[in-house]
Amino acid sequence: MTDLMRLFTRAHKLLRAATDEAMSRYGVRVGQNLVLEVLWEQDGLTPGELAERLGVATPTIVKSASRMATAGLVERRRDPTDGRLVRIHLTEHARSVQQDIARARADLAAHAFATLTAAERKHLESALVKIIDRMQSPAG
Amino acid sequence: MTDLMRLFTRAHKLLRAATDEAMSRYGVRVGQNLVLEVLWEQDGLTPGELAERLGVATPTIVKSASRMATAGLVERRRDPTDGRLVRIHLTEHARSVQQDIARARADLAAHAFATLTAAERKHLESALVKIIDRMQSPAG
DNA sequence: CGACTATCGATAGTCGGCTAACGAAAGGAC
DNA sequence: GTCCTTTCGTTAGCCGACTATCGATAGTCG
Asked: Which parts of the chain are coiled coil (chains A, B) (predicted)?
């Protein structure tokens, strides 16, 4: 049963590496693309909101956003009405690569799951959901 | 199809976090337990050999081994016949927690996959293998 | 024997995840 | 109107993964 775990880890690592490589061509790293996905949907979110939507800790977003700001993908702006909040906004450049990144993402998923039949994908999805539910339940 | 990817990431994260928590009770972190697994099987391997068996880059092992040495889990010894090689040996303490770690690992896997039927586990395994094969193939 | 090459571990620096602790701002209670 | 608490983002530091580079040692070839 632990072999299943090993397979899981191995597959995840390969997928992540391939994603990173595909995105890197557009100057976006694998973690950054997740932030962009959310901001493309709704710009000007706070680090806390981003963290919550991505299921990640706030400092992860803060660090990532700093690198993304350096890379010219986002800008930090103080909320005018609440001085505690910081709003993260996309730059023109981030908007310009949206289609490329979305396509890269879709192509990669299509490639990764290409050898699975529709039924197998359903099975995989339901298995993943079951595992997630199981691990999220209070009993841990 | 990218939802499948998201589910994958989410499940992996939950599994990893739970594993780390379970191991940490015995002073072993999630990455270190992988190194121990290999060394319990064959002690005195070099960083390069460990890296190859775990499918990981050598510096990852070097850093991990340093932390494990600090934690009293392993010792570095220079190979007597080839001065380039370093051999990593388990300490008595590392051997003493072997059963605990192995059990924790097995318990966690059992728990994670408890809500899957035998057939579903088979499906999951074959899907993972297909994905791994696909991502490893030259076409990338 | 001596120089060149290959091999190997270690180091530096990046990325992305975490927890713990801190500091600034907002809001409530009195 | 002042404290006190809550709510934020940030910082610091750990873990684990990577690439690129360096330094030391082995091995080979002339």
From this structure: none
